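EI: anyone free to look at a 290-residue chain?
SC: sure, send it
EI:
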Amino acid sequence: MPPWIGDAMALGCAVVWATAVMLFRRLGDVHPVSLNLFKNAVATALLLLTMALAGLHFDAHRGALDWLCLIGSGVLGLAVADSLFLAGLRRVDASVAAVADCAYSPTVIVISTLWLSEVPRPGFLWGAPLVLVGLLLVVWQSRGEVKVDPRGLALVLGGVVTTAVGVVLAKPALGRSGLVEATTIRLLAGSAALLAVQLARGKGREALALFKPQPAWRVAVPATVLATYVSMLLWLGGMKYGTASRAALLNQTGAIVLMLMSRAMGDRIPARRWFGAALAVTGVAIVVTR
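SC: here you go
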């Protein structure tokens, strides 16, 4: 397979993810928990269909600890983290979310170092501060600018950090599992936990509101398919047919793509925020390549 195939898929993943985020932002009137549960359910159905067509099966011989790690990862990453991210996306524009997403790679490295005793690359010491500076430039306010909602930014960052925790939690089990099967388990666990909590709170009807056919499906369905199915396949393809560090860097260009889309949709993006995004992406590039 030509090496450019992996690069093309990694870049495609960035564009698809950015498009999905823009679509999700158009669903600001939909409760984030309802949107998250709908998203997870549709993605689970697609992955189960993929497993059936590919002849894949759940690993009945998986150890109890691996099951717990995958289930816990699903609860954190797909029930808690995605709900936080979608809630934050209702309060901040896509350009802010794009820069906040750059915190993902450095966060994974920090947690992996503390939890899995992995040794960080030297580039982390140079790249991580650039990501932080980029985030500071995003939240810094000048006179006359529309203020960035601090609660919205905190929710988005909380979603990014919680996603990183979930990924690191699942990492040992993922190494002993098929990726599609493990992803399906995480989605099933996240969906079940989210629904159980809402039912216990007496908010089951609110959580299931989006499952009834409605005009919002015109945006919610394509956003879900793009975010949780197409982008995942492109991400896997980028990793499979290219180097992991190069694919990760190309994936992170989604921040720039998302800002360009945000600007095209009419969002006002201060020059300082563009500079912050450039610093954050540069920081990620140093983290994953040095």
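EI: DSSP finds 13 helices and no strands in the chain.
SC: 👍
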